[in-house]
Specification:
heterodimer, A: mainly alpha, MetI-like fold, 2 domains, 13 helices, globular, B: alpha+beta, D-Maltodextrin-Binding Protein, domain 2, Dipeptide-binding Protein, domain 3, eleven-stranded mixed β-sheet, 17 helices, transmembrane (chain A), membrane (chain A)
Chain lengths: 319, 596
Amino acid sequence: MSQYVLRRLLIAIPSLLGISVVLFVVLALAPGDPFSELATNPNVPPEVQAALRAKFGLDDPIYLRYLHWLNAMLHGDWGFSFVSRMDVDTLILQRLPATLYVIGSAQILALLIAIPVGVYAATKPYSLFDQIANTLAFVGFSLPTFFTGILFILIFSVTLDWLPFVYTTDIKATGIRWVLEMIRQAIMPVAVLGLFQAASMTRFVRSAMLDVIRLDYVTTARAKGLGQAKVIVKHVMRNAMIPVVTLIALQMPAVFGGAIVTEQIFRIPGIGSLLISSILSNDTPVVMAVTFVFACLVVLFNLIADVLYGWLDPRISLR
Amino acid sequence: MLDKELRSMIGQVKDGRMDRRGFIKHMAAVGLTAPLANQILALGGVAMAEGASTYKPTKRGGGGALKLLWWQGPTLLNPHFATGTKDQDGSRLFYEPLACWDPDGNMKLVLAAEIPSIQNGLLAADGKSVTWKLKPGVKWHDGKPFTADDVVFTWEYIIDPATAAITVATYRDITVEKVDDLTVRITFKKPTPFWADAFVGAPNTIIPKHLFADYKGSKSREAPANLSPVGTGPYKFVEFKPGDLVRGQLNPDYHMPNRPYFDTVEMKGGGDAVSAARAVIQTGEYDFGWNIQVEDDVLLRLEKGGKGKTIYAVGGDTEFIALNFTDPNTEVDGEKSSMKTKHPLFSDPAVRKALSLLVDRESVKKAIYGRAGRTTANFLNGPEKFVSKNTSWEFSIEKASKILDDAGWKPGADGIREKDGKKLKLLYQTSINGPRQKTQAIVKQACQKAGIDVELKSVVASVFFSSDVANPDTYAKFYADIEMFQIPLSQPDPSQHMRRFLSTNVATKENKWQGTNFPRWVNKDYDAAIEAAESEMDPLKRAAHYIKANDLMYQDTVFIPVQHRLKVEAAANNLRPIISGWANETDNLHDWYREE
């Protein structure tokens, strides 16, 4: 087992290197310039722009810049933002709490809805409950988050005036009021993201369950006289969860990566909005750091998913 | 001669035969901005009156929280590294200049004790030096006294090339010296009619010597104060999250009486302009929204029964169409739009003239900019009462057609005019931006009716405005026949603006398209006028030269002004913000208050 994990980790190194090369080259070749805003300002002489480019090493050849970046990254230096003139890791750490809180809650909400609904719908396929769940799921994942987000704002903020639609990180309250405010302002973004995720996940759970529920061993279990609840939870669900675990594991990096659209709508200062504003201002060190961390997380959670299979189904041996 | 006329007008203002406003009106008619006209008056011996204050509160603090919404939040808080006005706005909460501009272009004192004038001996009559008296007893937020040393240091910090300060252009040709602890003298190399540029306004705030002295030049990026500013302003720094939040609290030692009104200030970033307008005007979650570039009918809808309103400030931002004087379709020595070519169509002045008749400014205003735009014939614009009524523009397809007919451009079989085998086909480029694409459509339609075929092209703003040498789509390369955008008038003096279009500044492959003269318009008289202006000892004659240069551009139709754009902001109904078109939004923040 530990040998397997070690081997997988070693295999991950070349693939991460490959990913970093691709990311770096694409970003370096992409059009735009971090100091472009200065170009339209007649007050800023071109020499300043040239000096800034030289200062941040933008005039070096790509391979040299890549080696510099790689060397720094190995030493734990994530780079220096052109636009904010601060270390990228501080910038990312500042954004992480809001992302973890909002996107994490949304994922939990999605799971809390998807697993019970999906399982129950699968036990009674084509029943009224199943039909309703299916319809709602279709509606849920056909509506993009930018639409539901604005719809929620119009209903709950503008018309009813119940919830704020600008997310603030510095709530001026303490104790229980602070907690309540934090929950209040997160309701809309969490609901928008959570319901969207839940919709597709419900369909997934339901079909995974249906695949397993028809197998012979389930009939055997029932024939042994086991109760419905025990059959479903112990025998069906455990096996049906294997593809679901993959799906969830692959979605975990997204919790750290943030949700670009939703964060923009509700002004949540998360990783997603950092990423999009950095892309728009061509702040390559930040884009590079965020995307690379994202790549690392995808690799890591893939490994975790593989390890979990072994626990869920002992027949899958890890060699 | 114009300088004589100017002199006699100044004389009239002096002995009261002409009022100040009348003088400024005359100056605006010839393309000068209100702040500049005021400075010329000062040089002519008429002391500048300080802008009136409308501030009412009678005690410091007690105003609660001021919640500002900047949909592009500040990403750094050192004014001399600011990559955009958003950073200057954020820095200005904490740092202060010597003086700033009010909505009418009048000077208002901040850290200076007196407005320099010839009468009080602070302004040299030849326009070659200005002395600033500093307010006594001003303290930095950490308790250290503010002195002339800080002003001199700020200059030294900026002019060090290794610092790469973006404000360097204002400072590299001046010398700043300390006279005594509360007096600094600025010496100019040339007579300078715009003498109130250095250390005036949000981009030119003063930084503390004791915190930045060790971080001058190449070490500038390591300064801890870059991220936690210590200034002299009305609010003390509390917290900064780049792109998201800037927070400050009342400075109990602030040097202006009864100010500031608000106990805390918060500047929230992110999102988009429409939802920012909503949060201020419709739900009232925020007090003030910055730069609300939203279609007018959306704003009108939000304002109905809302909790806030839009406010407008007149500045000098003009959206224009520039004409390419070289051929963008012929490649010479690996370079399109090369100076070795002539534009096949625009070399005929009739085509340029006809084109300017085909830009329907009124429709552009009605359909797109609404209350946030004004039709104009001028490249430089000012407050409404000062704008020239002598110049005019016209939209007439018939006249344009007639001019083209007379010049020999006859419609071909496909309805497109042609002459000597050359078809009137134009490529019209701009950056991607809703109002700009709509303007393109309006111009295209009119051109089609007059027999000119226009192909539209729009480029992502980050590419269009970049200095990327490898990219063919930048405004500087100008691989199109006409292009439209706006150059922000970042200071109320046209001299920087006018220098752009010298023939030595043409953007070419040789200078990696860093040249600022993108229309590639070359005119000897223009060069001579600018040259004469820059070596001119007399500030009034200098102004006359600029006016001549300005006129030359009009005669040649180098630019077609499309719309004079106003600053649009959103504010809560009870907030009394002071917004000047000549300054950053937060430049007069110390005077903001809330009506109870």
